[in-house]
Amino acid sequence: MKTVYERADIVPVFAETFRELGYEGATLSRITERTGIGKGSLYHFFPGGKEEMAGAVLADIDAWFEQAIYRPLRNDDARQAIAAMWVNVNDYFRAGGRICLVGAFALDDTRERFSSGIADYFIRWIEALRSALMRAGCAETEAQTLAEEGVCGIQGALVLSRALRDGTVFTRSLKTLANRLEAATR
Amino acid sequence: MKTVYERADIVPVFAETFRELGYEGATLSRITERTGIGKGSLYHFFPGGKEEMAGAVLADIDAWFEQAIYRPLRNDDARQAIAAMWVNVNDYFRAGGRICLVGAFALDDTRERFSSGIADYFIRWIEALRSALMRAGCAETEAQTLAEEGVCGIQGALVLSRALRDGTVFTRSLKTLANRLEAATR
DNA sequence: TCTCTGCTGTACCGATCGGTATATCAATCT
DNA sequence: AGATTGATATACCGATCGGTACAGCAGAGA
Questions:
Q1: B164 with A119: Cβ contact below 8 A
Q2: Which chain B residues contact residue A172 at CB under 8 A?
Q3: Interface check B153 vs A, CB under 8 A
Q4: Interchain contact B127–A (C-beta under 8 A)
């Protein structure tokens, strides 16, 4: 059999594995087990090993957020883009059933491996949201505070809903944040 | 030499080790290296191994929050207790330089090992804060929302300040949250 | 002084870690 | 057909994993 895998097909499986087990917890045997791909192929596509695999996941995540969240926030109608952000974020994180890998990596030593990528992800998110808020009528300092508060709140909601095993906490928190930002743009 | 260690002396060192490396990343060799205690003593005090060590840390953390945060929120003057909470939390987390181990454990598979302890920590925090908010004059539903938002925001601020390597983000976020709650109690 | 108890360091256990080498396979090109 | 290429499974590597066994050692009580 010659089943050819594409990086694009494998990376999302990596992502879920790292999400569930963390960087250290995601051993190569776990990864081969979940992807169904042997070490041979794994190292063929990712000669850099585990670190390259996780790096590919982060790049994949970054690309998704760039096109689905950041770009609309920067370029499209501000109010609409912000509203779409809440919906897309709720879907992406499966209403709290899925964590933010970037945030999780930031919390422990794994941060040192992907330092700049992790910082970028959040900087660009906050900056894009701030831009949208200002276009929607916020003053600069308020927009900055609210943007930080929004991104912050999302990360916190992920932690909390995981801890409580209650996805409604996540969706409810997003709603509260959305109202808060909406109130500030009129 | 007969240097007798107390569990109370060791546990905080465990805590920092788990914080920095995560549960999987905190190997026994790392732990012995940081504590300066050999495996012999380690397993003498903690026959249950790594899991018991981490469990002791969680119990330690829980006890600290109970006496320093939750109890005042439940019993003392509401406004004062809330104000004290922000100060104590900022100190405890070293202005964002130290993460919340409970939150970190919640994010990956480690949650399954300490499930009830993790959930309890957050449930009691939110409940205590809600109680204080109500005594300070909040309506019940608003108090619940604000309490969740507060705890949520703290967790998010920890993630964000770690990711950005910027402790000012943490302190600033706490300030914003404090203002938010203050505004709702008058 | 002589036990006895509690603590400690160390050697060791099987299992698994991340990673490498290689032989084989399927498909394509000449 | 024969050679070449890319993809795959597998065996294997030294290192380290979490955990155990145990011998020795210091101090308290007899």
A1: yes
A2: 145, 148
A3: yes
A4: no
Report the amino acid identity of residue A185.
T
Among B133, B132, B179, B172, CA closest to B156: B172
CB B28 within 8 A of CB B39: yes
Residue among B87, B85, B93, B122 at smallest CA distance from B16: B93
Whether CB of B50 is under 7 Å from strand D: the answer is yes
Torsion-angle region of residue A151: left (phi > 0), alpha (psi -120 to 50) or beta? Answer: alpha
Nearest to A156 among B154, B169, B176 (CB): B154
| Chain A residues in contact with B149 (beta carbon < 8 A) | 153, 173, 176
CA distances from A172 to A148, A154, B84 (A): 19, 11, 27
Quick: pLDDT tens for B132-185: 999 999 999 999 999 999 999 999 999 999 999 999 999 999 999 999 999 999
CATH architecture of B58-183: Orthogonal Bundle (1.10)
Give the separation between CA A15 and CA A18, rounded to whole angstroms: 5
Mean predicted confidence (pLDDT) in B98-114: 98
B140-164 vs A167-184: helix crossing angle, rounded to 10: 90
